[in-house]
Structures are given as C-alpha cells and as structure tokens.
Amino acid sequence: MASLRDIKKNISSVKSIKQITYAMKMVAAARIKRAQNSILSARPFALKMESLIDDLYHELGEEDLSGTVVSQLFEERPAGGTLCLMLVTADKGLCGSFNTNLLKAATAWLKENRGRKVCVVAVGRKGRDFLHRLKGLDLEIAHEMVGIFPKAGYVHAQLLSDAILKLYRERPIESVTFIYNEFKSMMTQNIVRGQLLPLKRSIQNDEQAPQLTSGLFSFEPGKAALLGELIPRNIGAQLYRMLLESQAAELAARMNAMESASKNATELIDGLTLKMNKTRQAMITTELNEIVSGSEALSN
Amino acid sequence: MEKNHLLLTIVTPEKTVISEKPVESVTIPAFGGEMGVLPGHASFVVQLVEGILHYKDGHHKEVFAVLNGFAEIHKDKVMVLAESAELSKEVDEERARQAYQKAKEILVLRPADLDLDEAGAALRRAAVRMKVAEFRRKHKPQ
C-alpha cells in the first residue's frame, strides 16, 4: 500500500498538470474567437473573387484561353504521373484526435495510391514529422511550411500557392489533392479531402447565368493576362481559407481536449484525496490499537 | 445625397475595408497608370499595381495605400480586391521609411539567397506607404 507521502506527492503533481491543461484551455478559448473572426472576414474577399472570375469567364472564349499559362491549370494531365498531396496539420500536439485523424486520412490516401510516385507539401510540424518517419514509399517532401499557426496570414497562403504552382509547372504532376480539417463547430471537426489542381471548369459550364454581360467589359491588361493573374490569386484565397479553417479547428480541438483533461485531473485528485484520507485514518486506527493493546498488556 | 454616385467596395483577404460606400469619384492605381472613375464609367476589369487609391465624397477625401489586386467597375459599382489596403491614417511613416531603407540595402548588398522580385516588391510597397504618409502630411493642415 502506498504511503501517505507518496499519495501527497501524486496529488500535487496531478494538480500542477491540471493547472497547465486549464491554462492551455483558456488560451485556446481566447484565440478561437479571433480565428473565427478571421474566417468570417476572409469570406467576402473569396466571394467577390469568385464573382469576378465568373464575370471574366463569360467574357472569355475558348480561343482566348488556349495557349496561355492559365490553360495549363485547367487541362487534365495524362494519368500515371506524380501525385501531389497537400496536408495541413497542426504544429503542436495536445489537441485530441485532430492530428491523428488527419494522419489516418493521409495514410488511407497513400494506401490508395500505393506504388505511385508521391510528392508532398506539408503544412504544420506534425504532418511533416509523420511523413518523414514513413519508410518504403516513393515519397518526397517537396515543400514544407512549419510554425505558421496560430498566426496564419494571407502571406503564408500566398507563399504556399506560389510553391504549389511552381511544383505543378515544373513537374509532371497529375493532380494536387488537399487534406485538411474543417472547422464545423466548437465540438466537431470535419476532415475534408479534395482536388486543388487541375482546376475544374465548373464555373465555365454554368450556362444558366445571363450572357448579357458579354462584350460589355473592357480589360486592362488583356483578358488572358488578367485571368493569368487572377487564377493564382484565387488559389491563394482558397488556400488561405483552408489555413484559417484548420487553425480554428485546431484551437477548437485543443480547447475540448484540454477541458476534458482538466476534468479528468479533477476526478483523479478527488480519488487520490479520498485514498489519502483513508490511509491516514487507517494509520491512526492502527496506532490507537497498538497503544491500547500495549497498555492492556502492561496492566495485566 | 446626390443621385450620381459610385458604390465603392474594398475588400482584402483579411477584412472588408469599405462596403458599398457611396462616393463621387475614385482614383485607382491601374496597371497602365492612374485611372479616375466617375459615375457612368464603362464596365472595366483592371489589374492594380501598388499605389495610392483615393476617393472623394463631397468635401471629404480619403486616401488608401493598396498593394496588388484587381478592380471591377460595373454599373456604377466599383469593387476593389486588394491584397492589402491601408488607410492613410493607419500607415506608419517611420516604419515605412525603415522598410524602404532595408529593402534598398538588400538590393545593394545582393546576398546569396536574394529573391529579386520579392525585394523589388518590398521596395515598391515601402515607397507607396511613404507616399501615402507624405500625402497625408501635406493635406492635414487644411
């Protein structure tokens, strides 16, 4: 049976752990507000960007597009090339199943594409470290971005999009897939997997939009050049949203994890305190017993 | 309010700076030079360069430093999508000057890992901020 002193030590260590987890929870709670706000304020930009591209598309004929830099981004590439994965994880642990689920999803993706050449763009330390540890795969970390959370800005998204577009231009990459955690609510995060490149022509096929605007707009510089500038920016805006979502989701996950950790610590402390008191009483009883039986032995 | 006005919207990825504000005229730092926009302007899509954007609303005049982006003018609506837009009041002249100096030094020293585009862009950004600050100083006393 543990001695009184051991239990006391145990209690004090659990208490200090609880203090830390509680502090982490409070920090995450304070930051999540800001993270949510930045998601909200990034939304109008993305929407306007979409509508501008939409307008531009209706102005743009197929012949304007062909042969430009942008058209490369739309073309389907021959199957069998390198695959590219963009994995957005957290930099730090202690956020519940946030990273674990992401890494599981990444592993599943890698399994699906077993035997293919894969290059990875890793955002966040956890994902990078995980991919470094993987052996026996034809895998290369082409670009990494570490230490941007919890202060991810548009600059980071831009650097990221530049890196991805450069990769896409220079190598025979078939497609770019992204995996990240979406901030659904305070309690839940959703893993989202989708394709970043080649771009889908969904906007162009949307024919029900009025064609009235056609021919109305003037452009400076030319349409194709404008689109060539706009599309990378749009990718940047998309990536920015992903980074923000992931950031908010990480904070929410950490808040929940730390809250339950604090709760568990409290329970643990209660149990240990009870145990300590019981031990103490048992000791007193034993001592009394000894004294009484000793004096009785003397008087007889 | 007059009938003839433009609705100006400026958004950046980080925040919405101005949303559908009625103004009399806007001057945009366009790709091929400054461009003034008045009500009734033709529909136009234009790329922006680093520069000064100002709008006039009666006697009130406001100046922004904008960096890289696009503007769409359609049906008396001006929509500016900029990577960054700073109100002239928010520009820190001292910091801009320091950044300008630093960017210049980098361009002169040419370290091994120099990114020429990046350094040039930094220099232009700082120059724009300084210009805005100067503009503000000139127009303050009135």
Q: What brief labels describe this structure?
A:
heterodimer, A: 300 residues, alpha/beta, Helix Hairpins, Pyruvate Kinase, Chain: A, domain 1, 2 domains, five-stranded mixed β-sheet, 63% helix, elongated, B: 142 residues, alpha+beta, ATP Synthase, domain 1, Single alpha-helices involved in coiled-coils or other helix-helix interfaces, eight-stranded mixed β-sheet, 2 helices, 29% helix, globular
Overview of the structural elements:
The complex is a heterodimer of chains A (300) and B (142). Chain A has 300 residues and is of the alpha/beta class. Chain A has eight helices and six strands, in the order H-H-H-E-H-E-H-E-H-E-E-H-E-H. Chain A has two domains: 55 residues, ATP synthase, gamma subunit, helix hairpin domain (Helix Hairpins), CATH 1.10.287; 227 residues, Pyruvate Kinase, Chain: A, domain 1. About 4% of the residues of chain A have low confidence. Chain B folds into two domains: 83 residues, ATP Synthase, domain 1, CATH 2.60.15; 48 residues, Up-down Bundle (Single alpha-helices involved in coiled-coils or other helix-helix interfaces), CATH 1.20.5. Chain B is built from two helices and eight strands, in the order E-E-E-E-E-E-E-E-H-H. In chain B, strands 1, 2, 3, 4, 5, 6, 7 and 8 form an eight-stranded mixed sheet that branches. In chain B, helix 1 packs antiparallel against helix 2. The relative contact order of chain B is 0.17. The chains are: A alpha/beta (300), B alpha+beta (142). Chains A and B meet through helix 1, helix 6, strand 6 and helix 8 of A and strand 5, strand 7 and strand 8 of B. Strand 6 of chain A pairs parallel with strand 5 of chain B.
